[in-house]
Each structure stands twice: as C-alpha cells, then as structure tokens.
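User: tokens in, sequence out, please.
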C-alpha cells in the first residue's frame, strides 16, 4: 500500500514538472518572440527618425535660400549642424538601445519646434519684405510721376523763357538802303554815288531792357562779302566773331526809334543784290534785300 502511494506521488510530481517545463518553454518562446518584435519596432522607429532628421537638415538649407539676413542665416546653419549631429548619434545607436532612441525622439520634438519657429519667422519677414517691395514700387512710381511733372514744368518754364526772350527781342522794321550823292540827294547809279544810307525803325517794345545799346549794321555786296573799313571791326554773334559795316550807340527807352547810318563809298561797288542785316543785344533783329544799279 505504501509503495502504491509513493508511486502515485511520484507520478503527480512528474506530471507537475512536465507541465512546468512545458509552461516555461512556452514563456521563453513568447518572450523571445516579443523581444524580436520589439527589436523590429525599434529598428523601424530608428529608420523613421533618421528620415525625419535628414529631412530637417535639408529644410534648413532650403530656408537659408529664402532669406538674405546674415544673422538669421548663421542661426539656421547652427541648427542644421545640430540636427546633423543628432542624426549621426542616431546612426550609431543600436536598435536595441531603447533609452537612447527614446532620448533622440525627444530631441526630434525640439528640432521640430525650432524648425516651426524659424518657418514662421521667415514667413513673417518675407511678408514684411513683400510689403516693403510693394511700397517701394509705389514710391518709385510716385517719384517717377513727380520727376515727370518737374520735367514738364522745366520744359514749360524753358518754353516760357524762350517766349519771354522772343517777346523782349527788338525788331528792326522799315529797313531801306539807297545810294546818295555828296549833298545827300538820291543817286540812281552806284558808280556815281558817294554814300550808302541805311534807314530803319526799332519798333516799340515795353518788355525789353531799356538803356544804352549798340546797333550793328552789315551790308553784304553781290559777291557775298561784307563791307567793312577794318578787318578788326567785329562783334559776337552765336559764339563767333563777325564783321560789321557800321555801328551806332543809342539810348533805348522802349519807344519806337528811327535810326539812319551812313557808309562812305571808297571802293568800287558793282550793281546787283545787296542785303542789309541789323543786330543788337546779340540778336539779328531784321534784314532786307535790295537791287542797286
């Protein structure tokens, strides 16, 4: 009886040990499986982290292109280097190092927040720059418009000045040329004449400057030369020196004034077309053509 009891106890213990061994084996298998699954999960997380870190490093370069601020570019370069350093640390981390991967995941959150801050800052700067560019364009347009108005005003002023100058310019009217004898009576033949007499009126002009003026008369003979007593008898006209035949000083008051000037004939004068020009104040104020026989 005792032997039977011992056998029964031993049989039960064997069964219990077998069940325990089976259970332990199952636990070990499950534990290994879970460990492998965790390893796969950490490996996937590490790959995802590497991808995100690489993306952020590239985005810092893209952000630098969008700005011209040297100080901000330096900060972006610093953050890019920090991101690249974390990426290198991640590449050297084993997939089984859960603590290090967790730390780098936290660091990634910080990198993401910093990146978001820079994006917002750069977008704000770009909006400001865009507004400044638009304002600059408006200012340039207003400046060009103002410059155009100033140019138009200058042109109008210049035109008005020219009109005033033209209005103030004296006019010689009623110009006549005749040949005379010694006693002043008319002579129809040049070969017998002793003088050439030039007569004209300086018209009334209240816009011109009054006072002493010098009036020059040029008599051009048929061959195109100018009658002159001395080659040094010249005056300035259009930035050059030209000869005159006669000159006279007058006191101009703004009223109409008659002038008579005489040329003593001491040379041979051929019959033909004669032209008389009259000048004062640097302007030619009148001319006329005559046929003398």
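Assistant: Sequence out:
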């Amino acid at each position: 009886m005792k032997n039977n009891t011992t056998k029964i106890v031993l049989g039960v213990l064997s069964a219990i040990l077998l069940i325990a061994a089976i259970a332990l084996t199952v636990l070990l298998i499950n534990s290994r499986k879970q460990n492998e699954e965790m390893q796969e999960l950490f490996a996937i997380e590490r790959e995802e982290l590497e991808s995100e870190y690489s993306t952020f490093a590239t985005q810092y370069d893209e952000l630098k292109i969008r700005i011209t601020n040297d100080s901000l570019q330096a900060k972006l370069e610093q953050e890019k280097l920090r991101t690249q350093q974390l990426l290198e640390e991640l590449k050297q981390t084993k997939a089984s190092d859960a603590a290090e991967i967790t730390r780098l995941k936290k660091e990634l959150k910080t990198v993401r927040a910093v990146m978001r801050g820079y994006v917002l800052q750069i977008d704000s700067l770009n909006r400001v720059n865009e507004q400044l560019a638009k304002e600059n364009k408006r200012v340039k347009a207003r400046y060009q418009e103002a410059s155009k108005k100033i140019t138009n005003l200058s042109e109008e002023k210049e035109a008005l000045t020219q009109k005033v100058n033209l209005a103030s310019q004296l006019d010689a009217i009623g110009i006549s040329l005749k040949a005379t004898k010694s006693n002043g009576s008319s002579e129809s033949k040049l070969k017998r004449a002793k003088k050439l007499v030039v007569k004209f009126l300086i018209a009334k002009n209240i816009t011109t400057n009054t006072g002493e003026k010098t009036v020059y008369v040029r008599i051009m003979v048929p061959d195109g030369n100018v009658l002159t007593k001395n080659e040094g008898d010249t005056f300035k006209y259009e930035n050059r020196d030209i000869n005159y035949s006669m000159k006279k000083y007058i006191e101009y008051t703004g009223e109409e004034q008659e002038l008579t000037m005489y040329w003593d004939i001491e040379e041979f004068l051929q019959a033909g077309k004669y032209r008389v020009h009259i000048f004062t104040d640097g302007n030619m104020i009148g001319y006329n053509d005559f046929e003398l026989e």
